[in-house]
Amino acid sequence: MSSTSPLPLTDRFGRVHSDLRVSLTDRCNLRCTYCMPEEGLSWLAKPELLSDDEVLRLVDVATRRLGIRTVRLTGGEPLLRRGLPDLVARISALPYAPELSITTNGVGLARTAVALREAGLRRVNVSLDTLRPERYAEITRRDRLSDVLLGLAAAQAAGLAPVKVNAVPVRGVNEDEIADLAAFALEHGYRMRFIESMPLDAQGAWERDRMITADEILERLRERFTLEPVARTGSAPAEEWRVDGTDATIGVIASVTRPFCGGCDRVRLTADGQLRNCLFASEESDLRALLRGGADDAAVEAAWRVSVAGKGPGHAINSAEFRQPVRPMSAIGG
What we know:
Blueprint: E1 9-10, E2 16-17, E3 19-23, H1 52-65, E4 70-74, H2 84-92, E5 99-104, H3 113-119, E6 123-127, H4 133-140, H5 145-158, E7 163-167, H6 178-188, E8 191-195, H7 214-222, E9 227-230, E10 239-243, E11 249-253, E12 266-269, E13 274-276, E14 285-286, H8 287-292, H9 297-309, H10 329-332
Parallel strand pairs: 3-4, 3-12, 4-5, 5-6, 6-7, 7-8, 8-11
Antiparallel strand pairs: 1-2, 9-10, 10-11, 12-13, 13-14
Helix pairs in contact: 2-3
């Protein structure tokens, strides 16, 4: 391994990018009402997906030549990817192996947590918007809450710590469970994070007035807990609050009302090999075509740097010029 550090991956605003999100599939085994229609979407055909070798090569270029230090595997639902533990093990064996985590709905986590941890996975984020079985079935159109709860416990037992629980409160759906979800996480030693809903659904039906804002989330939490702000460090998107009398923290990600674009350090790779320099980007760079066209690592690196250099100042959700991305969240990766 060379002792020479790669040049940082920077944009024209001086932001350094060290966090890569890699979508492994656009498929999902849930049909969450705020994400996709009941019948699902038109999934990518297998030849369109990056192979394990292609994922590995791009992560290698990113870590060895671009200074990427953390990689999060996403979907769709990444646990649906065949041979996932083997891919995790191969990424973990790279010369500049990143800190590796995954975002999942947790449905299949109970049967995979140990294998993923042994392969080199370090942390897990699990999406969970309600603790009520009937409501879970209404939101996801699947009766799988018990599987998710088992998956959370299995992840913690396997050492995938801290186990983070992500919830998106939506008005008229689950905002009455904000404090309950936080209490559940505190009881089990999970780290709770609430995320403002964003216009990334496949139906294009997002409504701002149904979004529960960060201020509203904190107001509901303070009805039950005493919270002390934690100083924000680095480029982490969550504002954190310590629960008085404990070492536990609760995070709030205010992507819409208090955007953190000025400190963004993320870049995203879709399951079909398209590089996105912003979650809300209107343009993509086709790295898959470069790989399959025989490009060497220097050419892939150059394309990556050009894409990130052109990154805009922010997502512009609060601007009249904002346009929702053509790809929904399930096809971009979290």
